[in-house]
Amino acid sequence: MSEPPRRIEITEPVTITVDGREVTAQNGEWLIDACERNDAYIPRFCYHPRMEPVGMCRMCLVEVDTGRGPALQPSCMLPVTPGMSVDTTNDKVAKAQDGVLEFLLSNHPLDCPVCDKGGECPLQDQTMAYGPGESRFVEEKRHYEKPIPISETVFLDRERCILCDRCTRFASDVAGDPLIHFIDRGSQTEIATFPDEPFASYFSGNTVQICPVGALTAKPYRFRARPWDLEEVESTCTSCSVGCRVTIQSSRNQLVRYQGVDSDPVNWSWLCDKGRFGHEASNSEDRLREPMRRSEDGALRVAQWSDALGAAAAAIRSVDPSRVAVLGGARLTNESQYAWTKLAKSVIGTDHVDAQLGDGLPAEVVLGLPGASIDDVCAKGGTVLYLGPDPKEELPVLYLRLRHAAVSDSVRIVECSPMRSGLSPYAAASLQYAPGELPALVAALCSGDVPDGGVAGVDADTVRSAAALLDGIDDLSVVVGRANLAETAGVVVDAIDAVRSARPGARYLSALRRGNVRGALEAGMSPGLLPGRTTIATGSATWTEAWGAVPTAAGLDGLGILDAAAEGRLDVLILLGADPLTDAADRSLARRAIAGAGTVISLDSLPSASTLQSDIVLPVAAFGECDGTTTNLEGRVTVLHQKVTPPGTARTDWMIAAELALRLGGDLGVESSQVELWDELVKHSAPHDGLSSAALAAQEDPDGLLLPLDATIELAATTPTNVPPRSADSLRLVVNRTLYDSGSAISHCASSAALVPEASVRLSPADAAAMGLETGTFVTVASSHGSVSVPAVVDPGVPGGAAVVRHNLESVDAGVLVDAADPVCDVRVELR
Amino acid sequence: MARLTPENVELAHRIIARYPRPKSATIPLCHLAQEQDGWLTDEAMVHVAELVGCTPAEVLGTASFYEMFKRHETGRYCLNVCTNISCQLLGGEELLEHAEQVLGVRPGGTTSDGMFTLEDVECIAACTEAPAVQVNYRYFHRLGPDDLDQLITDLRSGALDDVVPHHGTLGRVHQDLDGDRIANITPPEAQTEPVWIRRHRELAESNDGGAS
Ligand code: SF4
Ligand code: SF4
Ligand code: FES
Ligand code: FES
Question: Which of A648, A735, A780, B90 is such that its CA lies 20 to 30 A from the CA of A466?
Fold first, then answer.
């Protein structure tokens, strides 16, 4: 089967005999893995190297002698001990395998010709290799209604199930969503959900990948292709910044399936459903195929590339560089990011460049803090201070790793969040703070000085017992990010400052969401920044030499760009896959900015609210349609591969940058492939030393190469954000994200679009009671900037004084409430 | 019908408190729900899941393993006729057929008045008294067709109310355990010595003390 044994370091070698050969194995590892590592593959169905064994299927029986005489034993549950002797192929073993298969097949339908698994089915393959040629079972087999949906995306054919317990173990032990279970007993046993309670897990697709038969199938792939028609290549998911390793598979130049690949430092073979089914958006009918220009009559009309690029270049050329800005780019490849940074900062000559829309963390913070890898954060017995967004909603596979660390590797997580999150049940302490007051809470946690009245709305005892967990922990791992979009980044930066002064040995993982945001910052896509973790102050010499010219003063950041555009101070606004109209935390600012900017040039693969408002739209290649590299949230660089051709005449972002550069009288110095761009970056960037395209290509494992964790950028001193007190008649707004929102990636994904939740405002039971409302009551949530009407949801996970609204849901837009300039946002909630 | 009544919720909390982990109370709480409604409703399983902190799917998975948890409405009396070997040799099958005719239902069926659910069961460990029958898990031994008729008449008339409670009530004794009979609710990871070893040791020590 496709799951290789986990890579391990042999620290306690023991000698065992496998089929007459003496081999070295790790003491205590499962025999099935030790044998496979030593070229004696043992067939199996239920064993999965990333889950605890259960010994359900008995396919892995081998004859083992530990000194008490040979006996058949399941190798998936037998730890290796010194001197063990194993026979994996003798007659007795062959008979056992033959027998197990005959039993499994007695109730298994002869579905192979119409089964999606046919051609890549472990049951089929192992029956061919080890099974009986004929069945003695002539009786009628079981029949069930087939298939039944167990969720929006997963279907179950019960008679195909061999009861291996893989899907159910995954659901309960890995994902923590035990919504499927064996029910009934004996030959009646089947996998089931509770009636009317579907397997609504963000990770449901993994069960399809690991089911060893065709019992579980995924709607987006059912009957789309046969394994022997598939072409595949390995790549990295860029739907979020975790950077899970995937195999992308295509059939007839169409992406049809992504499968998780086991990258030991990252995703352990798991994917979230948003990433796994992301190919549906790539295949969407709505993809942008041809360039478009706004014509005289105001409509967007298809144009030739030469016209569109000519118009773009003309718009840029005709204005002062200080009136041109580039926003977005966090989803581009490293190479495209580098090309666009070079184009903007050197050829055009503007420093108004920001990959983030004011919803991330300042570049100096991300690049200036000593880093921690995912493995560092999850290391056995460690302690983590978690100050990021709900990882289950924003960085799903990071959530799986954190959950595993807490449940199985005794990692103690102290979580500070604006409301209870998916991580909270696994945290040793979970504290819900009043928006804006995180710095005070963190300071109290790190010092242990807790006023008797509590801090940040959390009572003193709770803070004290959490502080005790952090007491004396110098090598603390801290996960930082934006848990609340209605709060400015300054508040988070202040909290980080509090940790830095109290725990100088702490290391940080920045939990920013967009796929390649880390790569963008490493490439210098931020005001005042140059590639390779340098600033205008420190990197000018290097990059002037490389590029000819660099900006001399720091430009505007994401919010500054939007502000300037809104005030008519920008003549050209270039959006690199950014959609401020739906994605910016401050919606009215985004609207004013798009309306106020002179020419808006948008590079995107799918239509969005912002592309529809743009003057020039350039279609770009999406994931799976271009080669390059990407950098995940840890700073891990992995290789992306093209599998299919982009639709229409869509081009890769760096090609557009190179073409524009030529039209502007510059030259990005790239002749034929993105490799030239990467190697130019590597040549001039100290942190990228050793990460050349050749070095990346030479990697045998799927793990890529990690940029140095130690920072080389100076952290700027910050002025603390002044958070005004909350008035008694208002609540403080929390805006947070859900995995499935109304962004274009999800709206164009047929199977995920149905999963976008209904908008609501979540209130604590105490506040709800005081206002006399209950779940379902329609209320108006009003800030000084706008108001929305939504049903209330009474949620005990919300602390008193807070009102939580999800970001970017079509039905209700929290963005109208927020003013990006205010450190926090107070709202009144009133009955309609 | 369905979720646990306030009194039963209170009892449920007392039952949960007997275990180191709430989830361990799943089966006793399913009994409680079955005692309340005569069978285990979906709503009750959802409620049990809330009370013990797991998902309804986990409660269903556990409950469905046990045939004595009925997931469909069941008659007031569950009449189980044994047709396994000893009983079969001594007329169990004929007895079942007779029951089918008298009650007008097949095994698995419930009479239209909601009084009886008939079941065909495997050995119920009363082979020496074959053919054996259980009503709501109370035994009736060496029954012939006439005895069965009489039994049904008595059950209908209420004459056996003291002997055979309504379906679901089998758990009553266990549900009301005295506080001082609760064994030990130390979580397993915090246990130093299994409680039975400790009790034996204490017993032995006190015996030693008495002898000397
Ligand atoms: S559905 Fe598949 S994974 Fe789940 S128990 Fe059955 S065979 Fe195993
Ligand atoms: S966690 Fe992120 S990188 Fe991983 S599969 Fe999901 S979206 Fe892709
Ligand atoms: S693989 Fe060992 S019992 Fe299934
Ligand atoms: S065979 Fe009927 S009780 Fe044993």
Answer: A735
CATH number of the domain that residue B84 is part of: 3.40.30.10
Q: Write out the residue range of the structural domain in which residue B89 sits.
A: 77-157
Chain B residues in contact with chain A using a Cβ-Cβ cutoff of 8 Å: 42, 45-46, 54-61, 64-65, 67
- In this structure, which ligand is nearest to the CA of A181? 1
Together in a domain, B52 and B90: no
Which chain B residues are closer than 8 Å to A198 by Cβ? Answer: none
The reply to whether the predicted model has a pTM over 0.90 is yes
Angstrom distance (rounded) from CA A291 to CA A733: 40
pLDDT at B212 (0 to 100): 43
pLDDT tens digits, A697-722 = 999 889 999 999 997 788 878 889 99
- Hey, are the CB atoms on A183 and B64 less than 8 Å from each other? yes
Copy the structure tokens of residue A795: 């949620």
User: How confident is the model at residue B184, as a pLDDT?
Assistant: 65
Q: How far is B117 from chain A (nearest CA, A)?
A: 20
- Cross-chain Cβ contact B57/A193 below 8 Å: yes
Cβ-proximal residues to A291 (8 Å cutoff; 6+ apart), any chain: A302, A303, A304, A305, A307, A308, A309, A616, A617, A618, A619, A649
Residue-wise pLDDT tens digits, A348-386 = 999 999 999 999 999 999 999 999 999 999 999 999 999
Please tell me whether residues B64 and B86 are part of one structural domain: no
> E strands within A85-223?
85-87, 148-149, 154-156, 180-183, 190-193, 216-218
Ligand 1 atom with minimal separation from the A162 CA: 7
Q: Please answer whether residues B65 and B30 qualify as being in contact, where contact means their C-beta atoms are separated by less than 8 angstroms.
A: no
Testing the interface with B: which of A167, A173, A196, A197 to mutate, by most B Cβ within 10 A?
A197
Task: Verify whether the Cβ–Cβ distance A181 to B57 is below 8 Å.
Answer: yes
Is B115 inside any structural domain?
yes
Q: What is the 3-state secondary structure (H, E, C) of A682-743?
A: HHHCCCCCCCCHHHHHCCCCCCCEECCCCCCCCCCCCCCCCCCCCCCCCEEEEEECCCCCCC
CB contact under 8 A, A179 and B57: yes
